[in-house]
Write a structure and sequence with these properties.
Elements (H helix, E strand, L loop, with lengths): L1 E4 L5 H13 L5 E4 L4 E4 L17 E5 L19 E3 L2 E3 L5 E5 L6 H14 L3 E3 L17 H14 L3 E4 L6 H7 L2 E4 L7 H8 L5 E4 L6 H13 L5 E5 L16 H9 L4 E3 L1 H5 L2 H14 L3 E5 L17 H17 L11
Parallel strand pairs: 7-8, 7-14, 8-9, 9-10, 10-11, 11-12, 12-13, 13-14
Antiparallel strand pairs: 1-3, 1-4, 2-3, 5-6
């Protein structure tokens, strides 16, 4: 159920409503919008709240009709803007996150981070823990990789996003990362979702390889029901019968999610197509589709990358891509920061 307060409701009236709900054992979740406050009560019925509708300042009491409650626009009509330091994701700026698939060495990451910063990238990505299909593939540098990411942040000022692969790693990764990434293979790892939901750091939740949009939204509901409201959704391609690309990039998901949810949407063209020849085209298409940002892979020498080299842009190609994105972003009413020193 949701309780919609009147536009002119006072702080005192809101406080009295919240106290009545808490006294009855409910856990009200107020969302303060630009014009009015909406209170979500996930475990209440209309009968439980029939008298609340008559309280001063209350406009209406209504059911939450969708399966996903806190991620829906019924609960929060205004778009969520995720704050990462001084960076706002989900607002007017189109945000580019970029970096190597895996952190391999200090030199590799620092050279990449410097170029990402110089080209106008806003977040540095890099995997310290790598869930791989084969147990013999590069699994990441682990905590040493996290330390290198922190070093790159110290030098460039770029916030870092990196993946958490298991619940026991949440405290460690959260100590280093600015954005906690939940990868496609872990989208429905409910123990991990519950633990990350208890954190108060921004989360990037990737869509599962064969997951529906509704399943992704329900996974986000786990995070938000745990108290973490700083959630971003990531479309990274789904597995279909088409073998020309690694996965099939579902750009329609951007539009669908925007209609039903207030959460920012990021697109990952690198993992979606799996081949560098198609990445730039899908980056540009993502801007036009209305995404709030992209997350892509770039590497100083993709031919020597320990993971995902075939889909990683060279640093030069990344710079060229950034130039091509700006006019499209402007046409979509978005801004992008200018490259450093150009």
């Amino acid at each position: 159920m949701i309780i919609v307060m009147k536009e002119n409701a006072t702080v005192a009236e809101l406080g009295r409503v919240l106290k009545v709900l808490e006294d009855r054992g409910f856990k009200p979740r107020p969302n303060h919008g630009a014009q009015r406050t909406v209170i979500g009560i996930m475990d209440a019925t209309g009968d439980d709240l029939s008298d609340v509708a008559d309280m001063p300042g209350v406009d209406q009491v209504a059911p939450l009709s969708s399966k996903f409650k806190m991620v829906s626009k019924d609960f929060k009509p205004e778009p969520t803007v995720v704050q990462v330091g001084d960076l706002k994701i989900g607002g007017s700026e189109f945000v580019v996150m970029a970096g190597p698939c895996g952190v391999e060495s200090t030199d590799q990451l620092l050279s990449t981070a410097r170029q990402v910063k110089a080209s106008g990238g806003r977040v540095l990505r890099g995997g310290a823990y790598k869930p791989r299909t084969s147990p013999y593939s590069f699994q990441g540098l682990r905590e040493e990789g996290l330390k290198i990411l922190a070093m790159a942040r110290q030098e460039t000022g770029l916030p870092i996003v990196t993946e958490i692969i298991s619940p026991e790693l949440v405290p460690l990764v959260a100590r280093y990362a600015d954005i906690l990434q939940i990868g496609a293979r872990n989208m429905q790892n409910y123990a991990l979702l519950e633990d990350v939901g208890k954190e108060r750091k921004p989360v990037l939740l990737k869509r599962g390889l064969m997951s529906t949009i509704e399943e992704m939204l329900l996974a986000a509901e786990y995070l938000m029901s745990g108290g973490n409201t700083q959630v971003m959704l990531c479309e990274r391609g789904i597995r279909t019968y088409e073998p020309a690309t690694r996965n099939t990039l579902d750009l329609s998901a951007v539009s669908v999610i925007k209609r039903v949810s207030h959460l920012p949407v990021i697109v990952d063209p690198s993992h979606a197509v799996g081949h560098v020849d198609y990445v730039a085209d899908m980056c540009r298409a993502s801007v036009a589709a209305g995404a709030d940002g992209i997350i892509i892979e770039t590497h100083p020498d993709p031919s020597k990358a320990l993971s995902d080299g075939q889909q990683s842009l060279t640093l030069e190609a990344f710079d060229e891509l950034m130039v091509s994105l700006r006019p499209i972003a402007n046409a979509m009413g978005r801004t992008m920061i200018e490259p450093v020193g150009k």
